[in-house]
Write a structure and sequence with these properties.
The complex is a heterodimer. By secondary structure, chain A is an all-alpha fold. Chain A is 87% helix and 0% strand. Chain A has one domain. The longest helix of chain A has 40 residues. Chain B is α/β, with parallel strands linked by helices. In chain B, 39% of the residues lie in helices and 21% in strands. Chain B is built from 10 helices and 10 strands. In chain B, the strands form 2 sheets. Chain B has a 6-stranded mixed β-sheet with strand order 6-7-8-3-9-10, sandwiched between helices. A 4-stranded antiparallel β-sheet of chain B has the order 2-1-4-5, covered by helices on one side. In chain B, a hairpin with a 2-residue loop joins strand 4 and strand 5. In chain B, helix 3 runs parallel beside helix 5 and helix 4 packs across helix 5. Chain B is globular and about 80 Å long. The chains are: A mainly alpha, B alpha/beta. Chains A and B meet through helix 5 and helix 6 of A and helix 2 and helix 3 of B. Bound molecules: adenosine-5'-triphosphate and magnesium ion. The site of adenosine-5'-triphosphate has 10 residues of chain B, from helix 1.
């Protein structure tokens, strides 16, 4: 292939990607404009909070616990060679709040809840349910998209907080209960080092951004599904892949702005 | 000619999903009030497209679609949604909501569009289900229904808000002869009992000639033939005869338009030899 063809292909891909992004953005605006029903009929949104949030609890809590325990074991191993094993709690808390909590919880959420949202909406599209809704004069954006979007956006940050909490508890179990570190030092150092604005608030901001990314991707891919069985399965895969990559990219950018010069 | 006796009509409608390939090429038809009208034609001739145009899902490129004295293509989105409350649409496979029970499916239009009390909704849902003979299935899950039952539940849902016009997209496909007859009679009975009008898209000429008042044959984007069931049965039109008797070749060719055989099979060989 010669250079001109290659450049043309690159240009075409870029244009397509931008057009796709624009399309997603317009969808985002449309969902926001169709939000009132998700508020006035809170049951619709509560149902989605149950499916996206409550049903993700087990995987989030178990994963958080294990991530915290592993981090504590490794951290203790390394920090004790510098005589700083008192700081294991700090290490775990910082790592979880600043990065791992929001990021890993969002990745798990994309796999557990995002894929389910896409598959459900995609199936509704493939079996004409969305069209049937429109024919009954009910807007699927208001009845299907908005409650799922807000259900996800509300659930995800809470799950991320629980994920970090479980991890810190896991680290506590390892260092204090198993290794026998002083629990006053564990909690005290952590409390002294963790900054509310710097660490906790940024963690919340990150998890909200990731929540929007994952849920918007999931709902959009559902509506954008090609109405066949293969269409649904490839849309589900796309949700997980695109959402995961977008989370990592957004995390990198936010980390630069939040923690530059720390 | 369109008259105020028509609940809906298409006037010289042209339409194509892509500009290069028109699907409908000047279709005119009338749906008189109180009648059941069938639209027939081969697969892919644009029958579903006609229903979609009637329901305002798409706009014609040229020509007009009228429903209840309103010009459908000119309606704004809120007006269109208001219009659709007077329209029932039965999808080919029912399109029941799979995350709801039968009861909730039929209750859906009431919950979305009315402020009726739970007791009233309960009675209405059971009445609608009774009309299609499935009151006993009210508390079943949708995946426990057979294809024919699912379609009848969808019918109960479609007539929930007492539409003026029912659109049926191939309600007979995949049904055994008994269910088929049940659904056919149901369509006719509901039409007459509720005083509504119906459009029935179907391949099933035998079943539909028994229940409809008027038939349009569509092909190549036009109306190829039309008439009452008696006129259709006794028609000498070769196209109608082919359709009624189910002959495989006739005015409707067996083969889709394609390149000449020689070009398709030998094209590469010819090109290679030329080099
Ligand atoms: N969404 C679409 N985009 C592009 N082309 C379409 C679309 N839907 C239908 N078509 C084309 O338009 C033509 C008419 O389709 P339509 O679904 O109205 O046919 P039909 O008469 O209902 O066929 P069938 O009996 O198989 O249901 C077909 O050739 C089809 O390929
Ligand atoms: Mg069709």
């Amino acid at each position: 292939m010669n250079i001109a063809n290659w450049l043309r292909a690159l240009g075409q891909t870029t244009i397509n990607a931008l057009a796709h992004l624009g399309f997603i953005f317009r969808f985002f605006i449309a969902v926001l404009l169709n939000t009132p029903m998700a508020v006035t009929r809170a049951r619709l949104t509560l149902r989605e909070i149950y499916f996206a949030g409550v049903l993700s609890l087990v995987i989030i809590l178990v994963s958080g616990l294990f991530v915290g325990m592993v981090l504590a074991l490794q951290g203790y191993d390394i920090l004790s060679t510098y005589g700083a094993s008192d700081s294991v709690g700090v290490l775990v808390a910082m790592a979880m709040l600043r990065e791992l909590g929001p990021v890993v919880a969002a990745l798990l959420f994309a796999g557990r809840a995002g894929s389910a949202i896409t598959a459900e909406i995609g199936l509704m599209k493939a079996t004409d349910q969305l069209l049937a809704m429109e024919m009954m004069a009910v807007d699927p954006l208001a009845r299907v998209a908005a409650p799922r979007f807000w259900g996800g956006v509300i659930s995800m940050p809470l799950l991320a907080a629980l994920f970090s909490t479980a991890a810190i508890f896991g680290a506590y179990v390892i260092t204090v209960q198993l290794i026998g570190m002083d629990d006053g030092a564990f909690w005290g150092n952590m409390q002294a080092a963790v900054d509310f604005r710097m660490d906790v608030l940024n963690s919340v901001i990150k998890s909200i951004v990731f929540a929007v990314i994952v849920t918007l991707t999931a709902v959009f891919e559902g509506f954008d599904t090609e109405p066949t069985a293969e269409g649904v399965s490839s849309a589900t895969t796309r949700t997980v892949v695109h959402a995961s990559l977008a989370i990592l990219a957004a995390d990198f950018i936010m980390t630069i702005f939040m923690f530059r010069g720390v | 000619m369109p008259s105020s006796d028509d609940i809906a009509s298409l006037n010289d409608v042209h339409f194509g999903y892509v500009a290069s390939r028109p699907v409908l090429d000047g279709i005119s038809m009338r749906i008189p009030r109180g009648k059941v009208v069938a639209i027939m034609g081969g697969s892919g001739c644009g029958k579903t497209t006609i229903l979609r145009l009637l329901a305002g899902q798409m706009r014609p490129d040229k020509g007009n679609v009228v429903f209840d004295r309103q010009s459908v293509p000119r309606l704004s989105k809120p007006e269109l949604y208001a219009m659709r409350r007077r329209l029932g649409f039965l999808f080919q496979f029912g399109a029941l909501f799979t995350d709801m029970s039968v009861y909730e499916n039929v209750a859906f239009p009431f919950r979305e569009h009315t402020d009726l009390s739970e007791e009233l909704i309960h009675d209405l849902v059971l009445m609608k289900l009774n009309a299609v003979g499935l009151r006993g299935a009210a508390y079943s899950r949708t995946n426990e229904l057979s294809g024919g039952m699912a379609r009848r539940v969808a019918l109960a849902r479609a007539i929930a808000l007492d539409p003026l016009l029912m659109l049926y997209d191939e309600p007979f496909t995949g049904l055994d002869p008994i269910s088929l007859s049940v659904v056919g009679q149901l369509i006719r009975r509901l039409n007459d009992a509720l005083g509504i009008s119906s459009v029935l898209v179907t391949h099933d000429i035998y079943q539909s000639l028994k229940i409809v008042d008027y038939v349009y044959f569509v092909g190549e984007g036009r109306i190829l033939a039309e008439g009452t069931p008696e006129a259709i049965r006794s028609s000498t039109d070769p196209f109608v005869k082919q359709f009624v008797n189910g002959e495989e070749d006739g005015p409707v060719p067996l083969h889709m338009k394609a390149l000449p055989l020689a070009t398709d099979f030998l094209g590469r060989a010819i090109e290679e030899r030329a080099q």
